[in-house]
Design goal:
13 strands, Rossmann fold, 12% strand, globular, 483 residues, six-stranded parallel beta sheet, seven-stranded parallel beta sheet
Length: 483
């Protein structure tokens, strides 16, 4: 069995690894580190959670042990799709390079430019950045990439999903042609394959089997949900989530709740806090300082429930997460494995529960197809009544309620300008008498008439036919008889 000591890493790096408690490299580490130390380009295909961060961090530190960085000219560059993943890479660098004199800078959005500029001006060996913030610094004339010797692109398929591929191509063009490139992706879409063929030179290809199954330590389940009414479905779904959390009791020490949309992340977090749950949202639209505080609070235990978009599903190593709740079925089946992989880590047990609605059927089928097994169906804890549907949770609705008495009030309330209704006749027989006939007949050709009926005729009450037939009908019969 291969050990880290067999990989020709620097002694100071091996000492840091030993202190972390790791002895045996993962398959992606064992495959990527040797060719990287030889100076070859590397194309690594592996899912999140396989240890590829150390797979490029360890050889990078070993290769950079000689040399010195100059102001605004980093010697190596690591590109990450999200701020959280970039921060985690920076933490890994600090862990493995603590016995070296190498320096780093972290360039991510939501942080002051001034502080980042100061770090760059001093000169850094490793620059860890998101593509957008990196180009912002470059366009402001604060960064020179002509001295980059090692370039790493992490989570390339996520870069593609987030629309960063044009930025990646531009950054490649700003770095030297002689650089060494380490490229990692979970999948190989056509666009990513085109980039690797363009910018990588005879790479060593290391492919780890796709993580199609979750850890055996994770207990999985799904609740099939259908709202009683379309306008109540969202409220009932949030109520079901609270019931599922309550059903776990003390076993749910903390949990990550995943939603597909940022708006749902905010709505679910707001609803949970409204009902007394210790919850906080995290997604890409929040300020970086708030995202950092939220993650720190969740790691430290001051926040029990973390409501997240998929920005937290990839690359984040948050230990001891007892539960994962999928409020939505992910639209990409691979994301399901990433999400539930936040629990049951390092040999711990975990539980993952998903809510599946009628609109999620095709996504749910794709998840089970990827796992190659059926996810156990769980009983709906909110099932009640004859049909077993979840009842509406009226207080949870934040939308204003529409009045249902508007039309009734309109019908019952008399118009302001309308004349008062005449008093009833004391004699009922008198009330049944026909209205007196008017000598002046309405002119069927009068202006504003419709179908031969003038405006005056519409105001007259019609009691019936027979003896009370209108004159023009009686006259027409008389004329016919006379003829």
């Amino acid at each position: 069995m291969t050990k880290f000591s067999d990989l020709k890493l620097d002694a100071k790096v091996l000492k840091a690894i030993e202190e972390t408690g790791y002895e045996t490299p993962t398959p992606i580490q064992a495959g990527a580190i040797p060719p990287a130390l030889e100076g070859r380009d590397v194309l690594g295909i592996a899912q999140t959670g396989t240890g590829k961060t150390a797979g490029f961090t360890l050889p990078m530190i070993t290769m950079l042990k000689r040399g010195r960085a100059r102001a605004r000219m980093p010697r190596s560059l690591v590109l990450c799709p999200t701020r959280e993943l970039a921060t985690q890479v920076a933490e890994n660098f600090d862990t493995y390079a603590k016995y070296t004199k190498l320096t780093k800078a972290l360039l991510i959005g939501g942080v002051s430019f001034k502080e980042q500029d100061q770090r760059i001006d001093k000169g850094v060996d490793v620059l860890i950045a998101t593509p957008g913030r990196l180009l912002d610094h470059f366009e402001r004339g604060k960064l020179i990439l002509s001295d980059v010797k090692v370039m790493v692109v992490d989570e390339a398929d996520r870069m593609l999903d987030m629309g960063f591929i044009p930025d990646i191509e531009k950054i490649f063009g700003l770095t030297p042609f002689t650089r060494q490139t380490l490229f990692f992706s979970a999948t190989m879409a056509n666009e990513i394959e085109r980039i690797t063929n363009t910018f990588l030179s005879n790479p060593a290809r290391i492919e780890v089997a796709r993580q199609a199954t979750a850890s055996e330590t994770i207990e999985q389940g799904v609740v099939m949900f259908k709202g009683s009414r379309k306008d109540r479905a969202d409220s009932e779904k949030r109520k079901l989530l609270r019931a599922l959390i309550d059903a776990e009791g003390a076993a749910c020490s903390n949990a990550i709740i995943f939603c597909n949309r940022k708006t749902d992340v905010d709505a679910v977090a707001k609803s949970l806090k409204k009902y007394g749950y210790d919850a906080a949202p995290i997604h890409g639209d929040l300020e970086q300082s708030q995202r950092t505080r939220t993650l720190d609070g969740f790691r430290e235990g001051s926040i029990r429930l973390l409501v997240a978009s998929d920005v937290a599903a990839r690359g984040l190593d948050i230990p001891a997460v007892s539960h994962v709740f999928n409020f939505d079925v992910p639209s990409h089946a691979e994301d399901y494995v990433h999400r539930i992989g936040r629990t049951g880590r390092a040999g711990r047990s975990g539980k993952a529960v998903m809510i599946c609605g009628p609109r999620d059927d095709k996504y749910f089928e794709a998840v089970e197809k990827l796992l190659e097994k059926e996810i156990p169906r769980l009983e709906n804890p909110m099932a009640g009544g004859e049909k077993g549907t979840v009842q509406a949770d009226a207080p949870d609705e934040d939308k204003p309620k529409r009045s249902r008495t508007r039309s009734r009030k309109k019908a019952d309330t008399p118009k302001a300008n309308a004349a008062p209704a005449p008093e009833a006749e004391p004699d009922e027989a008198a009330a049944a008498k026909p209205a007196p006939k008017t000598e002046k007949k309405p002119d069927s050709r009068a202006k504003g008439s419709r179908g031969g009926r003038g405006r005056a005729s519409r105001d007259e009450a019609v009691v019936g036919m027979g003896d009370d037939a209108p004159d023009f009908i009686v006259k027409s019969f008389d004329e016919r008889r006379a003829g």
